[in-house]
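Forwarding these from the shared drive since the link keeps breaking.
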Amino acid sequence: MRDPDTACPFCSLPEARIVIADPAAVVVRDAYPVAAGHTLVIPRRHVGFFFELDQSEQIAMLTLLDRARTGLEREFAPHGYTIGINDGRAAGQTVPHVHMHLIPRHHGDVEDPRGGIRWVLPAKARYWP
C-alpha cells in the first residue's frame, strides 16, 4: 500500500488478503463479515474520507466494486447487495481509512429488509405501512 499509516490496518494489509488490485485500490474480504462474501474496496492511498479522494481514486474504487460483484455473483449467487461507506465518525466509521462495503444479500437473510440502509437511523426508518 502507498502512503502507509503504521497504525492503519488497511495500510498494512498482507498481500494474501488482496482478492483484486489495481494501482489505486484493492479488494479484500472483510475480516469480520456480516454475510458470506462481505467484501471491502479500499484505496491504496491513506485517506480518511471518500470526498477527500481524487476523482481517479473514486473511479478506481467503483471499477473494483463492479469487478468484485462479478466474482461474488459466481461464488455466492446473491439476490441483491448492500453497498455502503461510513464516511466520518458520526456515520459510524471506525477505521480512519475510507473503504466501501459490498455485502451480498439473499432473500430471507433478515426478516424484513425494507428500508435497507435507512435502518442506520431506526427511529426514522419506519415510513411504510
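-- next protein --
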Amino acid sequence: MRVLYFDCASGISGDMALGALIDAGADADALRELLELLPVEPFDVDVERIETQGIHATKVTVRAAATGVIRTYANIRALLDDAKLPPDAQAIAQRIFRRLAEAEARVHRRDVEQVTFHEAGAVDSIVDITGTAVALSMLGVERVFSSSVPTGMGMVKTEHGVMPIPTPVVVELLRGAPMYSRGVQVELVTPAGAAILAATVEGYGELPPIRLEFVGYGAGALRADFPNLLRVLVSEAPPTARSDQRRPDAGGELVLETNVDDLNPELYGYVLERLAEAGAQDAWLTPIVMQHGRAAVTVSVLCSPQRQDAIRQVLFRETGTLGVRTAAVDKQALERQWIEVTTRHGGVRVKVGLLEGRPVTVAPEIEDCARVAREAGVPARDIYEEATRLARDSLRDDEP
C-alpha cells in the first residue's frame, strides 16, 4: 500500500500540489495527455524546475486565456464525466469538486446543485485540481495524511470582494483539521488546496514512522521570505500500521459510540453528514431501549485513529452526549478497483471488490446514478440496476 503525506509548512494550493506530485515522480508528459481530455478552453501546462532558497522544486503554471466563464457545480461534474479520465482519477477529482461545492453551498446558503464557481471554475483551477487527482492515481496513492495547516492571516481580494484569511470557504473545507496562522499577512491556503485536503486526507498530525520512497517539492506563486513550498512524502507502509507483522489486508481502526435519547430525529441525517465531513469511514444509527424504557439510538462511527479527535468533537457538539466510548477494531477490506460502464442514459462509475484477484462485489456509484437519472428523467434504481448488470457482464468478459 502506498501512502502520501502532505507537509504543508507553507500552506497548499492546487498548483503547489500538482507541482509536488510531479516532482515526486508523476509523469508530466503523460499527465498533459490526460488533461487534454478535459472539454474546456485551450490551455498550456508549463512545468518548470526552479530553486528557491536552496531547495529544488517543480513549479506548475497553467496558461489559459481569461474568458469570464462562470461554471456551476453541475457544469464541472459534467465536463469531468466527458473527459473519460481513468476511473480512480475521475473519482478523486469528482470528490474534490464535490467537497468544494458543499463548502460554497454552506457559506452562501445555497443548494449544492445551484453553486457557481468563480476562481475554482476557471480553467487553471480545473486543470490544477484534475491534474492533482490524475497524479495521485499515477503514483498509486491509496491513503493520504497531512500535517497541520498554516493558513496565513489578514485580508485577501476575491471575486466576492475583500475576505478575511482564511476565507470562509477554506474554513468550511478545513473543519476538523488543525490550523494555525503562521503569523504572516498572506493567503497560504487557497480554496483549491483546501478542497484537495478535505477530499483526500484521512488524518492530520505529525509525520508518522514511514519507509520513504519518493519526495517532491511544489513551488507556489507567492514570493516570501521563507521557502513557499509544499512537500509530499510518499511511502510504502501505512502510517496507521501498528506492527510490520500485521496482515496486509487488515487495518487498525476505531469504533466510537454514544447513546443518545434526546436528539431530534430530524437531525439524524445532519449528524451523519457532519461525521462524514470529519473523516468517518462509516457511521450508522441503531435503535435501542435505555433504562426506564426510554427510546434512544446508538450513534456508531468507524474511523482511523488520526480522525478520532475530530469525530469526538462532532459527537459532543452535535448530539449533546456527555460521553463517547472507543474500541479498537481490526478491519479487513477487499482489494478495490474502479471500472466505468455506459448505460443507455450516460456513464456510471462502478466500484468492484476483489477477493484473491477475483471480483465478488459490484457497487455502482450512487452519485453517478442520481446524476444520470436526474438528467434523463428516469428512476435512479433503473440506472443502478443497468449499471450493475453491465459491470458484471464486463467482468465476466474479462475472465480467462
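Residues 227 and 383 are 50 Å apart (CA to CA). The longest strand covers residues 250-260.

- D.
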